[in-house]
Automatic annotation (TrEMBL):
InterPro entries, A to Z: GATase_2_dom, Ntn_hydrolases_N
Annotated catalysed reactions: D-fructose 6-phosphate + L-glutamine = D-glucosamine 6-phosphate + L-glutamate
Keyword Transferase: yes
Keywords from the named record: Aminotransferase, Glutamine amidotransferase, Transferase
Name this protein carries in UniProt: Glutamine--fructose-6-phosphate aminotransferase [isomerizing]
Upper taxonomic lineage: Bacteria, Bacillati, Actinomycetota, Actinomycetes, Streptosporangiales
Length: 305
């Protein structure tokens, strides 16, 4: 029997523009998004700072995470590294699968690649999927923790190209929103919204690109930081995109959509719960409900809650 929890995690992050005059402005937004994301989880929290800069350690990827609220895990001494990181991602956890007491179950998660030449990926997930079904269908390494998130990222770590990645996303049964970075390409972020779990993307006036689990967080962040957003968009279910910068010697590019694809997500009847939109305004919730387009598993095949 699989227990489907309606707890929600929070995702947030930024891909920096090289044209921003002051990197501290985007950093302030990132930290503000982390504080707002506490409404979607306080079991644990964490951040990943990426981009290949010498000071980050772990081959250009530093992950800091711990039990409790984001405000308790975040440290001001990380600000200098955050300002230098071309990509930063964050997560607040509401445990649905896997004990919150085990560090291996906290995010962002580092997952090894399929071969010795692959650096693997670092990722965050909001949702609850049938991990047992995925492990029965696919040959995967022994996990280090007990979450569905690790199962998803082990599958993604072995795939490349939009068709290969959307093939994994279509195999998921349940709620899922995802943000992950292939560590071989640390200035590019993969974003995906499968069934139900919300994900919004915003671009500010300096061309920094952000993502978050609630579009309202961007409007609040705009009130308390020096950033102004030019665009805030709620991703539709079944959307995959790769956002970032192509590293070309001697050229500075703004973050942009480098690849995009659509797929058909699948949910279970028990996945439908208003707590999917925890923290949403009534208007945002109604607007998102009107765009849902996932398919449902037949009731006789759906796991029992």
């Amino acid at each position: 029997m699989i227990c489907i929890s309606s707890g929600m995690c929070g995702l947030f992050g930024v891909v920096r523009s090289p044209f921003a005059d002051d990197p501290g402005r985007a950093s302030d937004v990132f930290v503000t998004l982390g504080a707002l994301a506490e409404e979607r989880g306080t079991d644990s929290a964490g951040v990943a700072l990426l981009g290949g800069w010498p000071g980050l350690g772990h081959d250009g990827c530093r992950v800091v995470k711990g039990r409790g609220r984001f405000s308790g895990v975040w440290r001001t001494e990380l600000l200098a590294e955050l300002d230098r990181a071309p990509v930063a991602m964050g997560h607040t956890r509401w445990a649905t699968q896997g004990s919150p007491a085990e560090a291996a179950n906290a995010s962002p998660m580092l997952v090894a690649g399929p071969g010795p030449k692959s650096a693997g990926l670092v990722g965050t997930h909001n949702g609850d999927v049938d991990a047992r079904g995925l492990r029965e269908r696919f040959a995967l390494p022994v996990p280090s923790g007990t979450t569905d998130s690790e199962t998803i990222f082990q599958l993604l770590a072995g795939r490349s190209g939009s068709s290969g990645l959307t093939g994994v996303l279509e195999a998921l049964v349940g709620r899922a929103a995802l943000a992950w970075v292939d560590r071989d390409h640390p200035t590019q972020v993969h974003l995906a919204r499968a069934a139900l779990s919300p994900l919004a993307v915003a671009v500010d006036s300096e061309q920094n690109v952000y993502w978050a689990s609630n579009p309202r967080w961007f409007r609040v962040a705009q009130q308390y930081t020096r950033i102004r957003f030019a665009t805030i968009v709620m991703l539709r279910e079944g959307t995959y995109m790769r956002v970032g910068m192509e590293r070309v010697p001697g050229r500075r590019d703004r973050p942009q959509v480098l690849a995009a694809a659509s797929f058909v997500p699948t949910a279970r009847p028990a996945d439908h719960d208003d707590r999917v939109w925890t923290g949403f305004t009534d208007a945002d919730r109604r607007q998102d409900l009107a765009t849902l387009r996932h398919r449902l598993t037949p009731p006789d095949l759906a796991p029992v809650a």
